[in-house]
UniProtKB/TrEMBL annotation:
Transmembrane segments: none annotated. Keywords: FAD, Flavoprotein, Monooxygenase, NADP, Oxidoreductase. One of its GO terms (molecular function) is flavin adenine dinucleotide binding. Residues 205-225 are annotated as: Disordered. SUPFAM superfamilies: FAD/NAD(P)-binding domain. This is Monooxygenase.
Length: 556
């Protein structure tokens, strides 16, 4: 039997976004396939299986909002879900809704070309198969293209070397000397996990930019707490709060300016939120101006620095762990990160003071001449985020213009409402550039539902009596963002970002974590909050999609 290659829609990705988008398009009656290079569902949570990997979002909202039965019944024993639990949850959703038969695993997209004569996309995969589809939705994730640092002699190291984005399923580092390069969210989690007694013989953290991290507040979920959350699911209050908030992390953001209260009250509020835990809570739940007022940011920085000095007993280690930038990266939380450095077998190297000069067969040498002999090097060096996920694939829209060429014209990634690009018809992105800076599952739910409604509206606009075009789409129009709409969205996003301190920190949010990146300090998020984002895209749909154009195929 020959393999079917013509579909109404192709979904690229099998993580949170891809799973829900597949489910939603099938509900429209479309013929759909979801493809992924991995051998199973999970997306980020399939690949990122490093020690200590967990979500930094509370468990009660790190899940889909649309399946009330699952919200009420699916177990989550602790306040934060760990990587194996997230992966198991996504596998459960796929099995529950009988979606597995619609996935093509070990199927990597290599190119996508738009056929203007027929208004269909041709998707070519690694094995040479070409799939055609009227609609394409990419759910590539924010962080999937791994960043490998190009240090001198990096390939000469004779020991084990692993990137956290492709970690071995099984490992045993006991009695081994381990070096961890990087101290972002992943690095903090790896160091906390492996720094515990008995995990490794020696752990050396190589840090270029020490981080601000607060406690996660993780721990068992009591029966009473679970009943409270379930009541919130039943009456709708949980997601009413989430979808009407700024960052969608399940707490009410503060409306109080830092210096509107006394010093004593300010310290009390910091401490209260430190004790509750969660990085986003500390940044957005204490005071409203930490992300845009320098003095307010400094006050928050000083509080966290005081906690670092108080926690880390060795003054020299504490000094090296003190951040020297504003508190303006993606806020982190941890399960005992700073305490880890009180263990004698854990040390820190400050790379701004003593940079890495070379890798050699025995480990790493730094500029002070010190040789760090290692058995294992873990690269917690993050990802070339957002646009790089698309640059590694050849994607060509109208007039054979590539997505890379389109973004080059803008000197960075650009979209309309984070989901569509001019001259790329019937192509939608989940968590594409310029989407909302907020907790990802609620953002994904928001975008998938909007994309699904937009596709449904387009089918109705064509007066289709039935679906199942099988990839031909003869005579049918496309839906694509207008250039004016993209330009306006881009301008608005930059204005919002200009009012924050996020622009001053070197991080993946602006691509400044990658030396020599194609787009220097390019914006990747809409900083107006999820509530505002949802209001904008809802109005776009209610007004009949004024930011979009419809075009018939050339052969029509």
């Amino acid at each position: 039997m020959s393999q079917q290659t013509e579909f109404d829609a192709i979904v690229v990705g099998a993580g949170f976004g891809g799973i829900y988008q597949l489910y939603s398009l099938l509900k429209l009656g479309l013929s759909v396939r979801a493809i992924d290079a991995a051998s199973d569902v999970g997306g980020t949570w399939y690949w990122n299986r490093y020690p200590g990997a967990m979500s930094d979002t509370n468990s009660f909202i790190y899940r889909y909002s649309w399946d009330k039965e699952d919200l009420l019944e699916y177990p989550w024993p602790e306040h934060y879900v760990k990587q194996p639990e997230v992966l198991k949850y996504l596998q459960h959703v796929v099995e529950k809704h009988d979606l597995r038969k619609y996935f093509l695993f070990n199927t990597e997209m290599r190119s996508a070309d738009f056929d203007e004569d027929k208004n269909v996309w041709k998707i070519k995969t690694k094995d040479g198969t070409i799939y055609t589809a009227r609609y394409v939705v990419t759910a590539l994730g924010l962080l999937s293209k791994r960043n490998f640092p190009d240090y001198p002699g990096v390939h000469s190291f004779k020991g084990e070397m692993h990137h956290t984005g492709a970690f071995p399923r099984e490992y045993d580092f006991r009695n081994k000397r381990v070096g961890v390069i990087g101290s972002g969210s992943t690095g903090v989690q790896v160091i906390t996990a492996l720094g515990k007694p008995g995990q490794v013989k020696q752990l050396t953290s190589f840090q270029r930019s020490p981080q601000y991290s607060v406690p996660s507040g993780d721990g068992p979920v009591s029966k009473e707490e679970r009943e409270k959350f379930n009541q919130g699911y039943k009456d709708g209050s949980v997601y009413d709060q989430v979808f009407n908030s700024l960052v969608a992390f399940g707490f009410d953001e503060s409306t109080i300016p830092t210096f509107s209260v006394s010093e004593e009250e300010r310290q009390r509020i910091y401490q209260e939120n430190w004790d509750k835990g969660n990085g986003f809570r500390f940044m957005f739940g204490t005071f409203c101006d930490i992300t845009y007022d320098r003095a307010a940011n400094d006050a928050a920085c000083n509080f966290i620095k005081s906690k670092i000095k108080e926690t880390v007993k060795d003054p020299e280690k504490a000094r090296k762990l003190l951040p020297d930038e504003p508190y303006a990266r993606r806020p982190l939380c941890d399960g005992g990160y700073y305490q880890t450095f009180n263990n004698d077998h854990v040390d820190v190297v400050h790379l701004k003071e003593t940079p890495i000069t070379e890798f050699n067969e025995n480990g790493i040498r730094t500029s002070d001449g010190k040789q760090h002999d290692l058995d294992v090097i873990i690269l917690a060096t993050g990802f070339d985020a957002m646009d790089a996920n698309y640059m590694r694939v050849s994607i060509k829209g109208r007039n054979r213009e590539s997505l890379q060429d389109h973004w080059d014209k803008k000197n960075g990634p650009s979209t309309y409402i984070g989901m569509a690009v001019p001259d790329f018809p019937n192509w939608f992105m989940i968590t594409g550039p310029m989407g909302a800076f907020a907790n990802l599952p609620p953002v994904i739910d928001t975008q998938v539902e909007w994309i699904t409604d937009a596709i449904k509206a387009q089918m109705e606009r064509d007066n289709e009596k039935s679906v199942g075009a099988g990839g031909t789409a003869e005579g049918k129009k496309t839906i694509e963002a207008s250039q004016a709409a993209e330009d306006g969205w881009l301008e608005g996003c930059y204005k919002l970002a200009a009012g924050t301190l996020f622009t001053e920190a070197n991080s993946w949010i602006f691509g400044t974590n990658i030396p020599g990146k194609r787009y220097a300090k390019a914006l990747t998020f809409f900083f107006g909050g999820l509530k505002t984002y949802r209001q904008i895209i809802d109005k776009e749909a209610q007004d009949g999609y004024p930011g979009f154009e419809n075009r018939a195929p050339l052969a029509a």
